[in-house]
């Protein structure tokens, strides 16, 4: 039985199209952490030898080309979106100590999709105005709601609901004509009271249902700090 071939790129934590400099840096970083003189943990010596073996195969362009010829073709996955991934570190090594890695994912619709007009909206913003939201949180929520208002098209329908221990329709579901007046309504929202998220969601659903249409994007958008009390099951 043929043993599976080791993936030298995976061992070093680099992509197949990594530059020679990236391979070199990955090797030095791994060797520094795994060298037997510094790391006596069980199994680490074997990992160090694998890293050495991977580097010897990939550091020489001719040997790398020969190794690449033995690899199976990378699978091309066609996704319904475009994406980019950014990592704070190029790789993580096998270590006992905690390590931190930050990842940012950017998603975009395909280029061809951006050429077609988006369907009209039927959206309700459900805003948490409980006491826990006062200050900067409330400012951010109101600014976000106003930004949505300003980006609406004539065919879009928007409603706004605010809730604490009771819910209130701030802007009924309708086409938005007098936007300065509606922005003023949003600005007047004040934080107070306890948090009962279900009341806001229920009232938001009623506003969306008033204009429910399969040809529209029908959504409730909840803006909250995420804490509700006693009505978690109803919210779900």
3D structure, described in words:
With 236 residues, the chain is an alpha/beta fold. The chain folds into two domains: 101 residues, Helix Hairpins (Orthogonal Bundle); 119 residues, von Willebrand factor, type A domain (Rossmann fold). It has eight helices and six strands. It has a four-stranded mixed beta sheet with strand order 5-4-3-6, with helices on both faces. Strands 1-2 form a two-stranded antiparallel ribbon. The longest helix has 16 residues. The radius of gyration is 27 Å and the shape is elongated. The mean pLDDT is 87.
Keywords:
single chain; 236 residues; alpha/beta; Helix Hairpins; Rossmann fold; 2 domains; four-stranded mixed beta sheet; 8 helices; 37% helix; 18% strand
- Give me the CATH superfamily of the largest domain: von Willebrand factor, type A domain
Low-confidence stretches: none
At the fold tier of CATH, the topology name of the largest domain is: Rossmann fold
Given helix and strand content, the structural type is alpha/beta
Instruction: State the helix count.
Output: 8
Domain unit count = 2
Q: In percent, how helical is the residue content? A: 25-40%
Q: Please tell me what the overall shape is.
A: elongated
